[in-house]
Amino acid sequence: MEDRIYWLGWQYLLPGSGKRVWSLIEYFGSVKAAWEATAQELAGAPGVGAEGAAGLARRKAGLELDELAAKLSSAGISFVCHNEPGYPGKLLSIYDPPPVIFVRGFLKAADDLAVAVVGARKPSSYGQLVAEKLARDLAAVGITVVSGMARGIDTIAHKGALAGCGRTIAVLGCGPDIVYPRENKRIMEQIMEKGAVISEFPPGSPPEAWHFPARNRIISGLSLGTVVVEAGERSGALITADFALEQGRDVMAVPGNVVSPLSRGPHRLIKQGARLVEGAGDILDELGMDKLFPLPDSDGESLVKMSKEEEALYRLLSLEPVSLDELINQSGLVPQKVMAALMYLEIKGLTRQLPGKFYTRTGRNML
């Protein structure tokens, strides 16, 4: 717990520069030793030099770590270190994960089942329609939708996920307290209520141009796969797709009008081997989740499948909270099986866990 405050300090000093932080920690042997290093000692670290060390030492001296943590708490912003249970597992496995992420809203273990939906900032009506439907259908079956809250496809993807009564995560290229673009104030508030707004940039950080490529590696890093919906040849969405490939994640693309400049990015990806996406079912199939998370049938009736244990527990649940102990007693199952079944029911979007280990149905009729 003592180290936690030093990780926070380095995130304030070097946001968007995970590789530099990891290098310093490795050189000094611990995060505390790196933080307490003098300018002379920092100058000996690889890639720092005398001038860089002087700058780090000067900025470090101006930070009161306990005061920073208190300000975050009072602003309703939490921070999660890479070595803490709440840090996203998918993100931790990339080459240069941020040592600390700032969070508004809440992250859940179920967010490991996430798909990024990204694309053009000025999409066509077709692109808007497709992005909204993909995000809505994915969210409706329990897949978390990740995007960057930029204008265009990103914002539409977040709105679609919320319309599907599911979860969505917005990854910002600025501080978590900055609304960018400004017109997204309401959607940002809605995302915090139903999901999370996260950033590796400390509060107050403006949306500088170099922040966004760094942000894109987090969008892809949080996700099992990235879907590109309309993108020009030099679109930031293609940078996200490149990061996904480097991270060993799936890349998918929605085809478009062959004469539209916005189709060039997705079509190039498809030519290079990206999965062609016509609907959410293609995404689930590519990720090997089509059996676990089947989409609703044509009548709107869900076909989500459950194991015998999941079905038994689901029948004991209602819209009124039921305690974990009561579920164990009524089901006759051993506690380990009850906990496992409840976890999968939550992942599938069928149940919701409340404080105090109480559970309810989500209100979706799945039986």
Describe this structure in words.
Helix 11 (211-221) packs across helix 12. The model is unreliable at 298-302 (pLDDT under 50). The chain folds into 3 domains: 1-64, DNA polymerase, domain 1, CATH 1.10.150; 109-286, Rossmann fold; 308-361, Winged helix-like DNA-binding domain superfamily/Winged helix DNA-binding domain (Arc Repressor Mutant, subunit A), CATH 1.10.10.10. The termini are far apart. With 367 residues, the chain is an alpha/beta fold. It is 45% helix and 14% strand.
What's the CATH class label of the largest domain?
Alpha Beta
H-E string: HHHHHHEHEEHEHEHEHEHEHEHHEHHEE
Regions with pLDDT < 50 over 5+ consecutive residues? Answer: 298-302
Total number of β-strand segments? Answer: 12
